[in-house]
Design a protein that fits this description.
There is one protein chain. By secondary structure, the protein is of the alpha/beta class. The protein is 50% helix and 11% strand. The protein is built from nine helices and five strands, in the order αααβααβααβαβαβ. The chain has a five-stranded parallel β-sheet, with helices on both faces. The radius of gyration is 17 Å and the shape is globular. The structure holds adenosine-5'-diphosphate (ADP) and magnesium ion. Magnesium ion binds next to helix 4.
Amino acid sequence: MHTKLSLSEIRADLNIISSTCTINPLSNDDQSKLIKDNSFPVKFVDLWLPDFVDVVKENVILKMQAWLNNLVVGVDNDWIMLCGPIGVCKTALATMMLKYSYCIMRNKKIRAMWQQQNPLVQDWNLVRFWSSYDVVKEHINNKDRFEGGKRAFILAIDDITKPSNDFYTEVLDQVLRYRELNCLPTILTSQVKSVGLGDTFPLPLCDLINGNSDEVRITGDSKRGG
Ligand SMILES: Nc1ncnc2c1ncn2[C@@H]1O[C@H](COP(=O)(O)OP(=O)(O)O)[C@@H](O)[C@H]1O
Ligand SMILES: [Mg+2]
């Protein structure tokens, strides 16, 4: 039997993360830079893990915490695929996870540990947030930025099944295949569960996503107002 974690317990666990790694709250300047350079969704950038305690189920919080802890101690993570209907906070969770990841990777010791395992981890290119539409937009408009996102140490792609055309599918496949090959942590969100991806994507892309991802189902009512 699980009892719901209290906010203070979650905070205590966050302190465990922060005792091995400095998770400084971002200064206003850092936060503005994060939004600008990495395309973070502005409206979710203030949210931290404890803000989700009363919003999503405990197993989701624990999964997120475990994933972040692995990042701190240098354990390779599966990709996260946050699945669920509209309004259950997938985009907000992905933003929060990427922001923690950024804070963790700002720690020099942790970054050095990952750089030893994976020389691709570059100080200037730690995280990137893409809406699924950004995947093709960056590919077409700015090759350097596209490559920066594809190679970012941690990349989040939001609503992966949204633009369902062949070109998107091809570019997404290219990005994810690169990330699989180079063991780069990736956070995906989707309204479609892993078993249903075949309705949108060709089999090799479904296999690529499902073979690398830990599906985290978010249930409950939409949190969108109005
Ligand atoms: N931690 C939170 N606490 C309260 N409301 C939240 C939280 N995170 C997101 N929301 C609200 O929930 C709604 C849906 O969030 P969103 O992440 O866009 O969902 P999804 O991506 O699953 O459609 C938004 O209106 C947002 O403001
Ligand atoms: Mg969303």
